[in-house]
Amino acid sequence: MNTEIRALEPKSVWNKFADLNAVPRPSKKEERVIQFMLDFGKSLKLETFKDEVGNVIIRKPATKGYENRKIITLQSHLDMVHQKNNDTVFDFDTQGIDMYVEEDWVKAKGTTLGADNGLGVATIMALLERTDIPHPELEALFTIDEETGMTGAMGLKAGVLKGAILLNLDTEEDDEIDIGCAGGIDVTATRNYKEKLSGIGAIAFEITVKGLSGGHSGMDIHKGLGNANKIMNRLLYSASEKFRVRISEINGGSLRNAIPRESVAVVTVDKAHKDDFLKEFNSWSATIKTELKVQEPNLTIGLIETKKPKRVMGSRTQDKFLKAMYAAQNGVYAMSAAMDDLVETSNNIAKVKVANGKIHIGCLTRSSVNSAKLDLANTLKCTFELAGFSVDFSGEYPGWNPNPNSAILKVLKAQYKKVFNEEPKVVACHAGLECGILGQNYPDMDMISYGPTIKGAHSPDERVSISSVQKFWKFTLDILKNIPE
Question: Which segments constitute the Peptidase M20 dimerisation domain (predicted)?
Protein backbone atom coordinates (compact mmCIF):
# COMPACT_ATOMS: atom_id res chain seq x y z
CA MET A 1 0.00 0.00 0.00
CA ASN A 2 1.15 3.56 -0.78
CA THR A 3 4.18 2.31 -2.76
CA GLU A 4 4.31 5.50 -4.85
CA ILE A 5 4.40 7.57 -1.64
CA ARG A 6 7.41 5.65 -0.33
CA ALA A 7 9.31 6.37 -3.55
CA LEU A 8 9.08 10.16 -3.08
CA GLU A 9 12.03 12.24 -1.93
CA PRO A 10 13.11 12.65 0.79
CA LYS A 11 12.46 8.93 1.20
CA SER A 12 13.24 8.90 4.93
CA VAL A 13 10.39 11.36 5.57
CA TRP A 14 7.82 9.87 3.21
CA ASN A 15 8.47 6.34 4.44
CA LYS A 16 7.88 7.42 8.02
CA PHE A 17 4.73 9.24 6.94
CA ALA A 18 3.46 6.09 5.23
CA ASP A 19 4.26 4.05 8.36
CA LEU A 20 2.45 6.57 10.54
CA ASN A 21 -0.61 6.77 8.26
CA ALA A 22 -1.04 3.01 8.52
CA VAL A 23 -1.83 3.49 12.23
CA PRO A 24 -5.35 4.75 13.12
CA ARG A 25 -4.88 7.89 15.26
CA PRO A 26 -8.11 9.75 15.96
CA SER A 27 -8.06 12.35 18.71
CA LYS A 28 -8.75 10.87 22.14
CA LYS A 29 -8.11 7.38 20.77
CA GLU A 30 -4.34 7.57 20.40
CA GLU A 31 -3.43 4.36 22.26
CA ARG A 32 -2.19 2.62 19.10
CA VAL A 33 -0.11 5.53 17.82
CA ILE A 34 1.36 6.13 21.29
CA GLN A 35 2.51 2.51 21.38
CA PHE A 36 3.78 2.84 17.81
CA MET A 37 5.97 5.79 18.84
CA LEU A 38 7.22 4.08 22.00
CA ASP A 39 8.20 1.01 19.98
CA PHE A 40 9.90 3.23 17.40
CA GLY A 41 12.04 5.06 19.95
CA LYS A 42 13.01 1.88 21.77
CA SER A 43 13.91 0.18 18.47
CA LEU A 44 16.53 2.90 17.98
CA LYS A 45 17.80 2.33 21.55
CA LEU A 46 17.06 5.95 22.41
CA GLU A 47 15.75 7.26 25.71
CA THR A 48 11.98 6.91 25.24
CA PHE A 49 9.13 7.42 27.67
CA LYS A 50 5.50 8.44 28.01
CA ASP A 51 4.33 11.08 30.45
CA GLU A 52 1.23 10.68 32.60
CA VAL A 53 -1.19 12.08 29.99
CA GLY A 54 0.19 10.12 27.02
CA ASN A 55 2.71 12.45 25.38
CA VAL A 56 5.75 10.58 24.06
CA ILE A 57 9.28 11.97 24.54
CA ILE A 58 12.33 10.56 22.72
CA ARG A 59 15.88 11.92 23.20
CA LYS A 60 18.86 11.57 20.89
CA PRO A 61 22.42 12.67 21.77
CA ALA A 62 24.20 15.33 19.74
CA THR A 63 26.41 14.30 16.86
CA LYS A 64 30.15 14.84 17.14
CA GLY A 65 31.08 18.52 17.23
CA TYR A 66 27.57 19.66 18.22
CA GLU A 67 27.68 18.69 21.89
CA ASN A 68 27.88 22.32 23.07
CA ARG A 69 24.96 23.60 20.98
CA LYS A 70 21.63 24.37 22.62
CA ILE A 71 19.27 21.43 23.07
CA ILE A 72 16.46 21.42 20.52
CA THR A 73 12.94 20.22 21.29
CA LEU A 74 11.20 19.14 18.07
CA GLN A 75 7.44 19.06 18.55
CA SER A 76 4.44 17.76 16.59
CA HIS A 77 1.10 16.22 17.54
CA LEU A 78 0.17 12.58 16.97
CA ASP A 79 -3.57 12.85 16.40
CA MET A 80 -5.29 13.80 13.15
CA VAL A 81 -8.69 15.15 12.14
CA HIS A 82 -10.98 12.43 10.82
CA GLN A 83 -13.27 13.68 8.06
CA LYS A 84 -14.56 11.85 4.99
CA ASN A 85 -16.83 12.52 2.07
CA ASN A 86 -20.42 11.43 2.55
CA ASP A 87 -20.11 8.76 -0.14
CA THR A 88 -16.76 7.40 1.08
CA VAL A 89 -16.88 4.05 2.91
CA PHE A 90 -14.07 4.20 5.46
CA ASP A 91 -13.53 3.24 9.12
CA PHE A 92 -11.01 5.57 10.75
CA ASP A 93 -10.81 3.32 13.81
CA THR A 94 -9.48 0.34 11.87
CA GLN A 95 -8.12 1.48 8.49
CA GLY A 96 -4.93 3.26 7.48
CA ILE A 97 -5.12 6.29 5.19
CA ASP A 98 -5.16 5.44 1.48
CA MET A 99 -2.88 7.96 -0.24
CA TYR A 100 -2.06 8.77 -3.85
CA VAL A 101 0.04 11.23 -5.88
CA GLU A 102 -1.48 13.80 -8.22
CA GLU A 103 1.10 16.06 -9.87
CA ASP A 104 2.90 17.89 -7.02
CA TRP A 105 0.40 16.82 -4.37
CA VAL A 106 -0.10 13.88 -2.06
CA LYS A 107 -3.79 13.34 -1.32
CA ALA A 108 -6.05 10.78 0.34
CA LYS A 109 -8.94 8.92 -1.28
CA GLY A 110 -12.07 10.57 0.11
CA THR A 111 -10.69 11.31 3.59
CA THR A 112 -8.42 13.69 5.41
CA LEU A 113 -4.76 12.97 4.70
CA GLY A 114 -3.21 13.48 8.12
CA ALA A 115 -0.41 15.68 6.81
CA ASP A 116 -1.58 17.93 9.66
CA ASN A 117 0.50 17.12 11.67
CA GLY A 118 1.72 13.75 10.43
CA LEU A 119 4.43 15.23 8.24
CA GLY A 120 5.86 17.00 11.26
CA VAL A 121 5.85 13.70 13.15
CA ALA A 122 7.40 11.86 10.19
CA THR A 123 10.13 14.49 9.83
CA ILE A 124 11.09 14.15 13.50
CA MET A 125 11.10 10.35 13.18
CA ALA A 126 13.42 10.59 10.18
CA LEU A 127 15.80 12.85 12.14
CA LEU A 128 15.83 10.42 15.05
CA GLU A 129 16.51 7.43 12.78
CA ARG A 130 19.14 8.89 10.46
CA THR A 131 22.79 8.65 11.52
CA ASP A 132 24.27 10.88 8.81
CA ILE A 133 22.74 14.24 9.82
CA PRO A 134 24.66 16.71 12.02
CA HIS A 135 22.59 18.09 14.87
CA PRO A 136 22.63 19.21 18.52
CA GLU A 137 21.04 17.07 21.20
CA LEU A 138 17.46 16.44 20.10
CA GLU A 139 14.40 16.01 22.24
CA ALA A 140 11.29 14.88 20.35
CA LEU A 141 7.95 15.77 21.90
CA PHE A 142 4.94 14.01 20.38
CA THR A 143 1.77 15.41 21.94
CA ILE A 144 -1.70 13.90 21.94
CA ASP A 145 -5.19 15.32 21.38
CA GLU A 146 -4.17 18.59 19.74
CA GLU A 147 -7.18 18.66 17.48
CA THR A 148 -9.94 18.30 20.09
CA GLY A 149 -8.69 20.14 23.15
CA MET A 150 -4.88 20.28 23.25
CA THR A 151 -5.02 18.21 26.41
CA GLY A 152 -1.59 16.72 25.71
CA ALA A 153 0.11 20.11 25.75
CA MET A 154 -1.99 21.19 28.71
CA GLY A 155 -1.06 18.08 30.67
CA LEU A 156 2.69 18.30 30.07
CA LYS A 157 4.24 19.23 33.39
CA ALA A 158 7.08 21.66 34.04
CA GLY A 159 10.49 20.06 34.30
CA VAL A 160 9.91 17.23 31.81
CA LEU A 161 11.56 18.95 28.84
CA LYS A 162 15.25 19.85 28.63
CA GLY A 163 15.29 21.88 25.43
CA ALA A 164 16.23 25.56 25.26
CA ILE A 165 14.64 26.01 21.81
CA LEU A 166 11.36 24.52 20.56
CA LEU A 167 10.72 23.95 16.87
CA ASN A 168 7.01 23.35 16.34
CA LEU A 169 6.52 21.71 12.91
CA ASP A 170 2.83 22.54 12.48
CA THR A 171 2.66 25.57 10.18
CA GLU A 172 1.08 25.09 6.74
CA GLU A 173 2.82 27.51 4.35
CA ASP A 174 6.45 26.81 3.55
CA ASP A 175 7.44 30.47 3.14
CA GLU A 176 6.14 31.44 6.59
CA ILE A 177 7.80 31.49 9.99
CA ASP A 178 5.15 31.64 12.69
CA ILE A 179 5.74 33.51 15.94
CA GLY A 180 2.21 33.69 17.36
CA CYS A 181 -1.23 32.07 17.30
CA ALA A 182 -4.78 32.41 18.52
CA GLY A 183 -6.23 30.99 21.69
CA GLY A 184 -9.61 29.30 21.74
CA ILE A 185 -12.63 28.35 23.81
CA ASP A 186 -15.50 25.94 23.18
CA VAL A 187 -18.98 27.46 23.51
CA THR A 188 -21.70 24.83 23.81
CA ALA A 189 -25.41 25.68 23.91
CA THR A 190 -27.97 23.04 24.88
CA ARG A 191 -31.66 22.88 25.70
CA ASN A 192 -34.48 20.39 25.90
CA TYR A 193 -37.83 20.85 24.23
CA LYS A 194 -41.22 19.20 24.26
CA GLU A 195 -42.02 17.31 21.10
CA LYS A 196 -45.41 17.64 19.43
CA LEU A 197 -47.23 15.13 17.26
CA SER A 198 -46.89 15.72 13.52
CA GLY A 199 -49.99 17.25 11.96
CA ILE A 200 -52.52 14.86 10.41
CA GLY A 201 -52.33 16.67 7.06
CA ALA A 202 -48.55 17.03 7.09
CA ILE A 203 -45.99 15.51 4.75
CA ALA A 204 -42.23 15.25 5.36
CA PHE A 205 -39.11 16.26 3.47
CA GLU A 206 -35.42 15.62 3.94
CA ILE A 207 -33.26 18.68 3.24
CA THR A 208 -29.56 18.22 2.49
CA VAL A 209 -26.79 20.78 2.25
CA LYS A 210 -23.55 19.26 0.98
CA GLY A 211 -20.60 19.73 -1.38
CA LEU A 212 -19.08 22.59 0.62
CA SER A 213 -15.31 22.97 0.83
CA GLY A 214 -15.06 22.81 4.61
CA GLY A 215 -11.56 23.37 5.94
CA HIS A 216 -9.72 24.57 9.01
CA SER A 217 -11.91 26.77 11.20
CA GLY A 218 -8.93 29.00 11.98
CA MET A 219 -6.70 29.09 8.92
CA ASP A 220 -9.62 29.15 6.44
CA ILE A 221 -12.16 31.22 8.36
CA HIS A 222 -11.38 34.41 6.42
CA LYS A 223 -12.14 32.86 3.01
CA GLY A 224 -15.91 33.36 3.17
CA LEU A 225 -16.58 29.65 2.75
CA GLY A 226 -20.07 28.30 3.27
CA ASN A 227 -21.04 26.96 6.68
CA ALA A 228 -23.55 24.12 6.28
CA ASN A 229 -25.19 24.88 9.62
CA LYS A 230 -25.81 28.54 8.77
CA ILE A 231 -27.08 27.69 5.28
CA MET A 232 -29.47 25.08 6.68
CA ASN A 233 -30.73 27.51 9.30
CA ARG A 234 -31.36 30.14 6.65
CA LEU A 235 -33.49 27.70 4.68
CA LEU A 236 -35.38 26.53 7.76
CA TYR A 237 -36.00 30.07 8.97
CA SER A 238 -37.50 31.09 5.62
CA ALA A 239 -39.59 27.92 5.44
CA SER A 240 -40.81 28.34 9.00
CA GLU A 241 -41.76 31.97 8.48
CA LYS A 242 -43.68 31.38 5.25
CA PHE A 243 -45.06 27.86 5.52
CA ARG A 244 -44.90 26.98 9.22
CA VAL A 245 -42.52 24.15 8.44
CA ARG A 246 -41.77 22.10 11.58
CA ILE A 247 -38.40 20.58 12.42
CA SER A 248 -38.07 16.93 13.43
CA GLU A 249 -34.29 16.40 13.17
CA ILE A 250 -31.10 18.22 12.21
CA ASN A 251 -27.62 16.73 11.92
CA GLY A 252 -25.02 19.27 10.81
CA GLY A 253 -21.24 19.35 11.07
CA SER A 254 -18.99 17.17 13.19
CA LEU A 255 -15.67 18.49 14.47
CA ARG A 256 -15.29 21.73 16.44
CA ASN A 257 -12.28 22.87 14.41
CA ALA A 258 -13.63 22.06 10.95
CA ILE A 259 -15.92 24.36 8.97
CA PRO A 260 -19.06 22.20 8.54
CA ARG A 261 -19.46 20.81 5.05
CA GLU A 262 -22.78 18.99 5.34
CA SER A 263 -26.13 19.23 7.12
CA VAL A 264 -29.26 17.10 6.91
CA ALA A 265 -32.70 18.00 8.30
CA VAL A 266 -36.10 16.31 8.36
CA VAL A 267 -39.10 18.65 8.41
CA THR A 268 -42.84 18.56 7.92
CA VAL A 269 -45.14 20.92 6.03
CA ASP A 270 -48.90 20.97 5.49
CA LYS A 271 -49.71 18.96 2.36
CA ALA A 272 -51.84 21.85 1.07
CA HIS A 273 -48.70 24.00 0.83
CA LYS A 274 -46.56 21.39 -0.95
CA ASP A 275 -46.39 22.97 -4.41
CA ASP A 276 -45.78 26.49 -3.11
CA PHE A 277 -43.19 25.21 -0.66
CA LEU A 278 -41.28 23.37 -3.38
CA LYS A 279 -41.32 26.42 -5.61
CA GLU A 280 -40.09 28.76 -2.88
CA PHE A 281 -37.48 26.28 -1.65
CA ASN A 282 -35.97 26.03 -5.12
CA SER A 283 -35.85 29.82 -5.28
CA TRP A 284 -34.12 30.13 -1.90
CA SER A 285 -31.63 27.43 -2.87
CA ALA A 286 -30.81 29.14 -6.16
CA THR A 287 -30.22 32.44 -4.37
CA ILE A 288 -27.81 30.89 -1.87
CA LYS A 289 -25.90 29.01 -4.58
CA THR A 290 -25.59 32.20 -6.61
CA GLU A 291 -24.22 34.06 -3.60
CA LEU A 292 -21.61 31.35 -3.00
CA LYS A 293 -20.85 30.34 -6.59
CA VAL A 294 -17.26 31.64 -6.43
CA GLN A 295 -16.30 30.20 -3.03
CA GLU A 296 -18.45 27.06 -3.20
CA PRO A 297 -18.96 25.92 -6.81
CA ASN A 298 -19.83 22.37 -5.70
CA LEU A 299 -22.55 23.30 -3.23
CA THR A 300 -25.73 21.26 -3.63
CA ILE A 301 -29.00 21.78 -1.78
CA GLY A 302 -31.41 18.87 -2.01
CA LEU A 303 -35.03 18.26 -1.07
CA ILE A 304 -36.77 14.87 -1.24
CA GLU A 305 -40.03 13.63 0.21
CA THR A 306 -39.54 11.14 3.02
CA LYS A 307 -41.40 9.15 5.68
CA LYS A 308 -43.29 11.43 8.05
CA PRO A 309 -41.80 11.49 11.58
CA LYS A 310 -44.12 10.94 14.52
CA ARG A 311 -42.98 14.03 16.39
CA VAL A 312 -41.63 17.52 15.68
CA MET A 313 -40.32 20.48 17.64
CA GLY A 314 -42.87 22.79 19.28
CA SER A 315 -43.41 26.08 17.45
CA ARG A 316 -42.24 28.39 20.27
CA THR A 317 -38.99 26.52 20.80
CA GLN A 318 -38.42 26.31 17.05
CA ASP A 319 -38.90 30.06 16.66
CA LYS A 320 -36.36 30.81 19.40
CA PHE A 321 -33.89 28.23 18.09
CA LEU A 322 -33.94 29.48 14.50
CA LYS A 323 -33.66 33.13 15.53
CA ALA A 324 -30.77 32.41 17.89
CA MET A 325 -28.96 30.49 15.18
CA TYR A 326 -29.53 33.33 12.72
CA ALA A 327 -28.20 35.90 15.19
CA ALA A 328 -25.18 33.89 16.35
CA GLN A 329 -21.86 35.15 15.00
CA ASN A 330 -20.16 32.86 12.50
CA GLY A 331 -16.91 33.65 10.66
CA VAL A 332 -14.59 36.61 11.15
CA TYR A 333 -15.56 38.92 14.01
CA ALA A 334 -12.54 41.24 14.05
CA MET A 335 -9.24 41.71 12.20
CA SER A 336 -5.99 42.33 14.05
CA ALA A 337 -4.85 45.90 14.56
CA ALA A 338 -1.33 44.68 15.35
CA MET A 339 -0.60 42.62 12.22
CA ASP A 340 -1.83 43.20 8.67
CA ASP A 341 -4.26 40.66 7.19
CA LEU A 342 -4.45 38.61 10.40
CA VAL A 343 -7.83 37.54 11.74
CA GLU A 344 -7.97 38.51 15.40
CA THR A 345 -11.28 37.00 16.53
CA SER A 346 -13.71 34.53 14.95
CA ASN A 347 -16.32 31.89 15.66
CA ASN A 348 -17.19 28.63 13.93
CA ILE A 349 -20.68 27.19 14.48
CA ALA A 350 -19.33 23.70 14.11
CA LYS A 351 -22.08 21.30 15.17
CA VAL A 352 -25.87 21.42 15.31
CA LYS A 353 -27.79 18.35 16.47
CA VAL A 354 -31.56 18.27 16.95
CA ALA A 355 -33.36 15.02 17.85
CA ASN A 356 -35.56 13.43 20.49
CA GLY A 357 -36.29 16.59 22.42
CA LYS A 358 -32.69 17.81 22.65
CA ILE A 359 -30.77 20.60 20.88
CA HIS A 360 -26.96 20.76 20.90
CA ILE A 361 -25.01 23.61 19.29
CA GLY A 362 -21.19 23.49 19.42
CA CYS A 363 -18.96 26.46 18.59
CA LEU A 364 -15.23 27.13 18.65
CA THR A 365 -14.33 30.76 19.34
CA ARG A 366 -10.77 31.91 18.59
CA SER A 367 -8.79 35.08 19.19
CA SER A 368 -5.21 36.25 19.51
CA VAL A 369 -6.47 38.65 22.20
CA ASN A 370 -7.73 36.84 25.28
CA SER A 371 -10.20 39.56 26.31
CA ALA A 372 -11.67 39.64 22.78
CA LYS A 373 -12.04 35.85 22.81
CA LEU A 374 -14.06 36.03 26.02
CA ASP A 375 -16.06 39.00 24.72
CA LEU A 376 -17.21 37.06 21.66
CA ALA A 377 -17.86 33.96 23.77
CA ASN A 378 -20.09 36.07 26.02
CA THR A 379 -21.85 37.50 22.96
CA LEU A 380 -22.73 33.95 21.89
CA LYS A 381 -23.70 33.04 25.45
CA CYS A 382 -26.16 35.92 25.66
CA THR A 383 -27.58 35.17 22.20
CA PHE A 384 -28.35 31.57 23.10
CA GLU A 385 -29.48 32.25 26.67
CA LEU A 386 -32.10 34.70 25.37
CA ALA A 387 -33.49 31.72 23.44
CA GLY A 388 -33.68 29.55 26.55
CA PHE A 389 -30.43 27.63 26.13
CA SER A 390 -27.92 26.68 28.80
CA VAL A 391 -24.42 27.68 27.72
CA ASP A 392 -21.12 26.18 28.88
CA PHE A 393 -17.54 27.29 28.24
CA SER A 394 -14.86 24.59 28.10
CA GLY A 395 -11.50 23.65 26.62
CA GLU A 396 -10.06 27.15 26.88
CA TYR A 397 -6.43 27.48 25.82
CA PRO A 398 -4.18 30.52 25.56
CA GLY A 399 -2.76 32.19 22.51
CA TRP A 400 0.95 32.57 21.83
CA ASN A 401 2.18 36.14 22.09
CA PRO A 402 4.65 37.02 19.29
CA ASN A 403 8.26 37.74 20.22
CA PRO A 404 9.84 39.60 17.28
CA ASN A 405 13.19 39.64 19.14
CA SER A 406 13.37 35.84 19.44
CA ALA A 407 16.92 34.52 19.02
CA ILE A 408 15.81 31.44 17.10
CA LEU A 409 13.70 33.66 14.82
CA LYS A 410 16.88 35.48 13.82
CA VAL A 411 18.53 32.16 13.00
CA LEU A 412 15.62 30.97 10.87
CA LYS A 413 15.30 34.26 9.00
CA ALA A 414 19.00 34.34 8.20
CA GLN A 415 19.17 30.71 7.09
CA TYR A 416 15.99 30.93 5.03
CA LYS A 417 17.39 33.87 3.09
CA LYS A 418 20.73 32.15 2.68
CA VAL A 419 19.26 28.84 1.47
CA PHE A 420 16.36 30.12 -0.67
CA ASN A 421 17.62 33.60 -1.63
CA GLU A 422 14.48 35.36 -0.45
CA GLU A 423 12.99 36.76 2.73
CA PRO A 424 10.54 34.56 4.67
CA LYS A 425 7.20 35.89 5.84
CA VAL A 426 7.19 36.31 9.61
CA VAL A 427 3.58 35.85 10.68
CA ALA A 428 1.15 34.98 13.41
CA CYS A 429 -1.70 32.61 12.58
CA HIS A 430 -5.36 32.31 13.54
CA ALA A 431 -5.04 28.60 14.23
CA GLY A 432 -4.34 27.15 17.65
CA LEU A 433 -0.73 26.04 18.05
CA GLU A 434 0.53 24.29 21.15
CA CYS A 435 3.31 26.83 21.69
CA GLY A 436 1.12 29.13 23.78
CA ILE A 437 0.17 26.30 26.13
CA LEU A 438 3.68 24.86 26.38
CA GLY A 439 5.01 28.35 27.11
CA GLN A 440 3.02 28.48 30.35
CA ASN A 441 5.20 25.82 31.97
CA TYR A 442 8.32 26.62 29.91
CA PRO A 443 8.36 30.44 29.81
CA ASP A 444 12.09 30.63 29.03
CA MET A 445 11.96 28.31 26.03
CA ASP A 446 12.48 30.11 22.72
CA MET A 447 9.76 28.91 20.32
CA ILE A 448 9.14 29.04 16.59
CA SER A 449 6.79 27.26 14.18
CA TYR A 450 7.22 26.36 10.51
CA GLY A 451 6.26 23.55 8.14
CA PRO A 452 5.50 22.40 4.58
CA THR A 453 2.61 23.70 2.48
CA ILE A 454 -0.64 21.91 3.34
CA LYS A 455 -3.95 22.88 1.75
CA GLY A 456 -7.48 21.97 2.84
CA ALA A 457 -6.53 20.77 6.33
CA HIS A 458 -9.40 19.29 8.34
CA SER A 459 -11.28 18.35 5.17
CA PRO A 460 -11.19 15.47 2.65
CA ASP A 461 -9.54 17.93 0.26
CA GLU A 462 -6.43 18.00 2.46
CA ARG A 463 -3.24 17.74 0.40
CA VAL A 464 0.46 18.42 0.83
CA SER A 465 2.93 19.70 -1.74
CA ILE A 466 5.72 17.23 -2.53
CA SER A 467 8.19 19.93 -3.57
CA SER A 468 7.33 21.84 -0.41
CA VAL A 469 8.19 18.84 1.77
CA GLN A 470 11.57 18.74 0.04
CA LYS A 471 12.04 22.43 0.78
CA PHE A 472 10.93 21.94 4.39
CA TRP A 473 13.36 19.04 4.90
CA LYS A 474 16.26 21.01 3.43
CA PHE A 475 15.44 23.98 5.65
CA THR A 476 15.21 21.79 8.76
CA LEU A 477 18.61 20.22 8.15
CA ASP A 478 20.14 23.65 7.66
CA ILE A 479 18.55 24.97 10.88
CA LEU A 480 19.96 22.10 12.93
CA LYS A 481 23.46 22.76 11.59
CA ASN A 482 23.24 26.40 12.66
CA ILE A 483 21.86 26.20 16.18
CA PRO A 484 23.95 28.47 18.43
CA GLU A 485 25.88 27.36 21.48
Answer: 208-292
Active site (annotated) includes residue 79: yes
The one catalytic residue among 146, 176, 220, 434: 146
Would you say residue 37 has pLDDT above 90?
A: yes
Name the residue ranges covered by the structural domains of the chain: 3-181+400-481, 185-397
Q: Which of 30, 79, 434, 446 is catalytic?
A: 79
Burial of 184 (0-12, 13-18, 19+ CB in 10 A): buried
Dihedral sign of CA atoms 49, 50, 51, 57 in order: positive
In sequence order, the β-bridge partners of residue 84 are 111
Please, is 425 exposed, middle or buried when counting C-beta atoms within 10 Å of its C-beta (0-12, 13-18, 19+)?
A: exposed
Q: How far apart are CA 266 and CA 284, in angstroms?
A: 17
Provide the CATH number for the domain formed by 185-397 in this structure: 3.30.70.360
CATH class of 3-181+400-481: alpha beta
Predicted pLDDT at 480: 98
| Residue 158 DSSP SS3 | coil
Chain centroid to Cα 361, Å, comes to 18
| Count of CA atoms in the C-beta half-sphere (13 A) of 294 | 3
pLDDT digits (tens, 9 = 90+) for 79-99: 999 989 888 999 999 999 999
pTM above 0.85, yes or no: no
